[in-house]
Amino acid sequence: MSIGLYYPYVHFRDLAWIKAAALFMPRLARIVPQGFRVSDPDDVRALRDGLGFVEDFDPADAVEAVSQHMLLLIDRRGDDLRRRFDVRDAVVADLVNAEPSPPGIPAPMYGTQHRFTSDGRPLAGLYPGEMTEELRRILQANGLARPVVRNAVSGQSGPEWVGIDPTLAWVYKCALTSELANRASFTPLTDQVAALTAAGTWNADRMAAVLLGEATASAHEQEDLTARVGVLSVQYVLPARLRDVPVDKIVELRTRYEADFRAFSDSVERTANTLKDSVGDIENRRALEMHLRDAVHRDFEIQVDELRKMMNGMGLQTITTAAGTNFEMPSSMALFSATTGVAVGSTMGMLTGAAGTAAVAAFGIVTGARRQGDEAVSANPAGFLLRVERGLRPVTLWGRVNMALRRSIGAGI
Length: 413
What we know:
By secondary structure, the chain is an alpha/beta fold. It has 17 helices and nine strands. Strand 2, helix 2 (42-51) and strand 3 (54-57) form a beta-alpha-beta unit. The longest helix is centred in the C-terminal third of the chain and has 29 residues, at 285-313. The protein is elongated.
């Protein structure tokens, strides 16, 4: 699977989304123009620093090409653009409090001060490094942009930002994302559910079609099937409140099971490629979604269900279940101490005589079964999903005991 390219913002808007993305994308780039100061929350920093998952990417190589597309559009359709996106009558203010927003979608607002266009729409802000100086000058000369001192969304002051209609800003950001993705072989990804995707070719004609409502891109041009397959397959095993799952667990899963993750990513790519070959030209979005969900069910959900049955059939529910009928386990305090620093050998030393012998035998049986199960999970491309399911669920006291014992003997998922 290729590296993802986040858009249309620099800062991630949905922490649960980026946690999920880290479970199906190898890495995630984002557009950060030179001079832009990033301010990430702790979870994003952990994914960036602990896993190398997030990487900032300067769009300088793509800026010239996209700016030329926009300049050509202004030259051809300047009057039409001004009728829709003229900002010369905007209320004077120093703050831009809106995000770039797709056509027909209200722009998200921040703060209490706004700069409005004449019909009451807020203005979004583009960083100077996202376009050429020539484009900034032409936009302002045509009344399609105004200089602003500070952007309230990012909280940054310093260079003069470009105040622009949210829809015009969105289309430009999509075009910039697409150009950079094509040059670097990245896959555009967004956490904005209602967003028009940046996939496909963006030029002056497509910009005009989207901005002026003359046409829409076809369904297969708007959808990246690889990302959709990855999202849907991971959703099948994610906990309900992924936002509350410690990001360290995700870093550990990716680090500990890197080979399994790569096998899963390759399987996602294969499923997506099969879909592209068989139904990729379908323009009916609902029909395409039906084919997509059926493929994910066949290639991933059924496989995870079979792995669950296999693990349970091998008697791998818990170590205590397998051994409990043969001997009396230590007290709760003794078990708890085993999870807080006491070596497993010390715990095993508590079990003496026939009970101890039975316990060791039970451990041998369970350990062998768990290793067989672990090998079976690794051999299945969907096995990483089962590791995600078990690795992110809440851990009980008995679960912590079993985990400590399994790790001490090199077994377990």
